[in-house]
Predict the structure.
Amino acid sequence: MDPHRLYTEKADTYVSFASRFSHQQGITALLLAHGLLRDGMRILDAGCGTGFATLATLDGLAHRGFTARKIDAFDLTPRMLERFEQTIRSRQLSGIELRQADVRRLDTLPPGWTGYDLIVSVSMLEYVPLDALPGALRALRTRLAPGGRFVFVITRRNPITAALIEKPWHAHRYSRPQLADACAAAGWHDVRFAGYPARYFWLNLSNHVVIASADRSEAVAAPSQG
């Protein structure tokens, strides 16, 4: 099923699904555990959906006593963006700008949407086919500032996700070698496979967490099989 149609029809179901597995709290813990937050950052939420990754990032910043200089977020599905906009209004949040866009066509974003210190992408890139994944990753890399970091969460290929993710959510599932190859082809450096803190262990069963840089500061880590 086309992801635009899927998430238009299942926006409410998705919110319940993410809440049931504590995705928002897990993302906050992930960002804090890996030291990805600092004060005054420009942040992009790539494939923001209803906003739980942005909200998780805000929670992490607040935990450290930091504030973001600016947060931009895009998603393919207007229905998801409407839900996010409602949350922004109800919580009286400021400094967040939303746009509809496809990660494979980022030329539609405003010219100023670049130079980010952190790009976060959660449960979006699994809707990009394997042959198009390097291009999507390359497009995101061009949006990063020098010294910036990219963290993405993407569905792991295993029997659990076959039943839990692939069938109900029509998502692609990837192995570590596939992701390592895609990142290398897209020009990402210092690529490492990380994970959620132990208290959110169940999220590691169904997801890869990849942290990368656009800078050639360290050697690309060799992936283990999985």
